[in-house]
Amino acid sequence: MSSSAEDIIISANDEVSKPVDEKKPTLLIPATETSAGEDRIKQYLPKYDRFWMRTPHFLKLNALMVVVSLSSTNTGYDGSLLNSLQTFDEWVSYMGNPDGAVLGALNNGVVFGVVLSFFCASYISDKYGRRNTIAFGNIFMLIGVIIQSCSINYGQFLVSRMIIGFGNGIAIVPSPTLISELTYPTHRQIVTTFYNSCWYLGAIVAAWVSFGSRNVTHNWCWRIPSIVQGFFPLVQTLFIYFVPESPRFLVNKGRYDEAREILLKYHAGGDEQLGGALVDFEMAEIQSAIELEKIAARSKYSDFFKTPGNRKRFFLLTWIAIMMQLSGNGLVSYYLNKVLNSIGMTSTDEKLIVNGGLMIYNFGISMIIAFFVNFFKRRTMFLFSNVTMLIVYVIWTILSAINQERDFADKSLAQGVLAMIFFYYLAYNVGLNGLPYLYLTEILPFTLRTKGINSCLFIQQFVQIYNGFVNSIAMDAIEWKYYIVYCCILAVELVVVYFTFVETSGRTLEEVAEVFGEQPQELSKDFDTLKGTDEQIENKDTASSDSQDNVIVV
After folding, report:
1. CA–CA gap between residue 237 and residue 140 (Å, rounded)
2. Which of 243, 276, 307 is the C-terminal boundary of a domain?
3. Among candidates 179, 174, 99, which has minimal Cα distance to 134?
4. What is the mean pLDDT of the chain?
5. Phi/psi-derived region of residue 253, left when phi > 0, alpha when psi is between -120 and 50, beta in every other case
6. 46 inside domain
7. Given strand 27-28, what is the order of strands in its sheet?
């Protein structure tokens, strides 16, 4: 007799009578509460009486995640490099004294390359695997670094920047994905945070390598930091194949045995008795995610404009993208040299020390905030960030104006501006470093989540183009007066956050949906389609004796 739905759908709290066959993975239907998945997985986690650093398979896995995190380090190195190069008179002279839009094009060269990579990075990652895609992107980066280091003119340097950006864009798409798909469940948030913070590690190395080469004669003072940029892509390429492939990628390719073997090795130390239940649960989650993505693939970007709730979501993700790049951070990120010039700090040594110290400071602050992000409401963090950035920018502007009026004679004013830069980044890191992506995953329904995050990233690139061109021209033309523009932008951002940003912390998906004016059942209707009718389920397994091999957990 064929089995009915009631025969094979069980509660997550029930016990499965025997291990699930890895060739017939279970189908896990996600619950509608944001914390439900975490609550369910806790019952399958093995008990360890030792810290993870004393557990060999955890230590090895997390060490391998450092290799993957080098993608973020590559990005940070590049982000800090051009800031440092602008302080070298040799580089400025060799490149024909670039300024205004010409200098902006160099800053945007990487952005142009990243935008181009968006059209193929996800496809390559899904078709050829996470590791191959990272290696492929790094090869492009290394080619770009060679061209950049050997550049004999502005045009060659610009082309090299675009190639580096293209390779970097390809490598950074699969990297956080691979981390989330490989990391042990209870380590995921910390390891992901570490990945984001590695941006500052790369920036620190770039800043201090540049400081170390400042007294090297001729053009080697800037060629050395350019050459060192190839170090991290090279190391990552050499070691990336020691990292296991994504189990999710393997399952999607029908390689279930390999996926299960990897999960058992790195999540349970190869101990079937200790971690077999956890591995079965994770295999079930992977299958569920793949099925849900089939639903998500049927969604369109136009769905953002079909309902009031989705239109508000699109407005929020657009505004988040703008805030992340247009809150004044672009000035320091791209043109710290010009900012320091505007307060009378012209010494190359001083500029490089400030740049290096700022990167170390940012790394420490971002790590501290990451550990405390769950203790505060999302709106509270956004509002605190905006209010503090606005206050700091107003003080920064006033001090810069007085400093110029006094012909930069009062060193205490310059020191005051420096202090404001450090205070500014404290505020920025609270609300606009890692929090936005967490917030986006909470406001976006599953069917629009990937498209929403991609839209946010895409919008950011266009705002960065503005930063690259306009900031340079404006700083040359009106100097400190340009800060007033950002004071106004930050004031508008504060109003928008206060009146439009919804609170998601501690709310279930149904409660978040209600905030957007939707009925809870609308949110979970896609999940319901996966459960299917009795007839659809019977088609999976016509023999009741085999029903235990096709368990659907809800």
Report:
1. 11
2. 243
3. 174
4. 82
5. alpha
6. no
7. 9-10, 552-553, 27-28
- Identify the DSSP state of 553: E
Q: What is the number of structural domains in the chain? A: 3
pTM of the model: 0.77
User: Token pair of 339, please?
Assistant: 């900012």
Query: Please, are residues 160 and 147 in contact by the beta-carbon 8 Å criterion?
Result: yes
Give the DSSP H/E element, type plus range, for residue 178. helix 174-182
pLDDT tens by residue, 123-175: 898 889 999 999 999 999 999 999 999 999 999 999 999 999 999 999 988 89
Residue 9 has what pLDDT? 30
Q: Which residue has the tokens 């994905």?
A: 177
> Does residue 540 form part of some domain?
no
Same domain for 313 and 275? no
Backbone angles phi, psi at 294, to 5 degrees: -65, -35
CATH number of residue 165's parent domain: 1.20.1250.20
- Strand-pair category, 27-28 with 9-10: unpaired
Buried b (16+ CB within 10 A) or exposed e, 500-517: ebbebbebbbbebbeebe
pLDDT of residue 335: 78
**Same domain, residue pair 78 and 171:** yes
**Are 177 and 293 found together in one domain?**
no
| Residues 317 and 450 reside in one and the same domain | yes
Sorting pLDDT into bands at 50, 70 and 90, what band is 229? very high
Domain with 282, as residue range(s), is 244-298
Find, among 141, 103, 153, 152, the residue nearest to 229 by Cα: 141
Cβ contacts of residue 278 below 8 Å, gap of 6+?
41, 44, 45, 46, 267, 268
In which element (H, E) is residue 293 found? Answer: helix 272-297
